[in-house]
Amino acid sequence: MSKESLKDLTVKGVGWTAADTISRYGISFVVSIILARLLSPDEYGLIGILTIFINVSNVIIDGGFTNAIIRKQNAKDVDYCTVFYINLAISAILTTVLFFCAGTIADFFERSELAGLTKALSLVVVINALSIVPKARLTKLLDFKSQTKITVISASVSGVVGIGMAIAGFGVWALVGQQIVCQLLITLFLWIYNKWLPQLLFSWKSFKELWNFGWKLLVSGILDSVWNELYQVVIGKCYTPATLGFYARASQFGSLFSGNLTAVVQRVSFPVLSTIQDDVPRLKQAYKRVIRTTMFPTFVLMFGMAACAKQIIFVLIGEQWLPCVPYLQIICFIMVLNPLHALNLNAIQVMGRSDLTLKLKIIKTLLVTIPLILGVFLNIYYMLVGSAVMGVISYYLNAYYSKPLLNYGILEQIKDILPSLGVAIAMAFPVYAISYIRLNDFFLLPIQIVVGAFIAIGLCEKVHLSEYFELKGILAQYLLKFRSRR
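The structure assignment produced for this chain is given below.
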């Protein structure tokens, strides 16, 4: 694959994946804003508790097979069928376990409503399992356009269902209905767009080959998911569902930019860069470029969100959610490093070193216990600040282990992203200062956004920031294509 075609594939993939993520998260975000005004923090907290079990179950079902089959350059139908049947069997077991443990979950969190909610949401686990292989096939083919269409339809229809149920007085069940309908539609359309049906094929040889790469990612994913969800367990058990609702809402806002940018870049870069995994110098240059162009918007957007967090929460979801503002500000600083975590781990996996991914996860799992202990014995703020500190240490570990594979260490990475960080900090201070002006928040927020954009763009133009001009060029290219089609 030539350098230019690699760039074209990446840009095209990022374009469609960004459209997919923006449409999915954008629609879901708008729906959640409406639902936040119809439902209470306590009701959101109940679903936040159940999300713990659903997310862990989904990681177990995947088993690392998705990345294994995407990375395999000569995957055959027997490989897809083998993974499909394994996923289906595991999902059936987990759904059954969740169904019969519903009462225990309700007793542990001392909320009787959780029993029925758990039984209903357990269906999402098996529905999701049916979508894994079709989605992996489209990703391997770099067909992100179809996935974008699927996302728009599913998010829109499920959003209407959720809002309708909330208006009709179904309360927390509106969130359950929204999730089930969304996953059901995604799975249905993935099968329709794939034009693929599993045959009665199963190969232990294929299973062992994929498992040898994937099991380390499975264990790593379980550790990651369990320990991430333990934050919600600690909050849900030691505090109140309302507090968990505030934390969950802050996390949702915090992942609006960082989480979605990470998902876009990681989703595209892994299959694309896997094609040049044997050309280390070229791979290094590709990662340098991806890290610089990803961290520029991440820094600007996350620092900007932290600077005007109060106005964002008040304007979008109302005064009843203002207690989540300090959570959001700390979470912004936690999540700003997410793309760096993901891309360094991505590089390790592209090079076939899933053993290092597992090793890193074990080390970082031990570190994460420190913030959790702070949350149990002190308060949630100490837990979040501790998590931010652990995030910096985790980034150092990721970069340390990826350096021998790409010859691209932490000092070189920091040197590459430092100009973008400087622009973000210079923009954030005046934006935050504006929040002290005595004006209605509905007026303040647009002023903050305009001033922040003006400062950031002006600084980039003045210092000739290369990643800014590269993103500007890509955007201009897309606009030209759009105009020519019209």
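Interim note for the steering committee: The two ends are 31 Å apart (CA to CA). The chain has two domains: 1-239, 255-486.
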